[in-house]
Fold:
Amino acid sequence: MLQNVIVRDLGLTDYQDVWDNMRSLTQQRDSASADEIWIVEHPPVFTLGLNGKPQYIIDARHIPVIQCDRGGQVTYHGPGQIVAYILMDLQRRHWGVKKLVNRLEQTVIDLLAEHAIRAERKEDAPGVYINGAKIAALGLRVRRGCSYHGLSFNVDMDLTPFSYINPCGFEGLQSTQLKDHRPGIDINIVKTQLAEELIRQLFAAADAPEKQNL
Structure:
């Protein structure tokens, strides 16, 4: 049975504004509040996780750096990358964070399979990879039993700023994007595909409760 979920396309929006709004919604929501998926692109920005190490930023150049409250280390956001923020009541679903991470990774893996691209996850490094190069990164925060932040998916962007950092704390980690494997891809079509796959993975299936600390 499909759960009550709202999908919002926020277009190109400043990272700080979206982060502030995520925190506000999470603070104000209650057990009856609908879950939401926010689809967005950001102007160029590096973000550091809550315990992120600044030394993983080799040279920020002209790009702003924001230390936020998600998990994980440093990553880059820029136009042409789809970011999906998952504002979900995990407590209501009896889900743990590991299950949410698995479903988010599977979302991208299945979407890429639709484009005849084989992708995989790594047990010790959350995200999605194609031949060892990272195409999607994950970073989450759970507060009051509810998640926010989410995943970033490289589609049609300038990957150069990833070379200014050690992405997710891994020196020499290569980044890739959908355009490199499927030239001419339309990012707006991919946004729709991603939203549909997220709904299928997170909300459409009836799941048995998972006993796990949030």
Q: What stands out?
A: Confidence is low (pLDDT under 50) at residues 208-214. Helices lie at 15-28, 90-93, 97-114, 178-181, 187-204. The chain is about 25% helix and 30% strand. Residues 97-114 form the longest helix (18 residues).
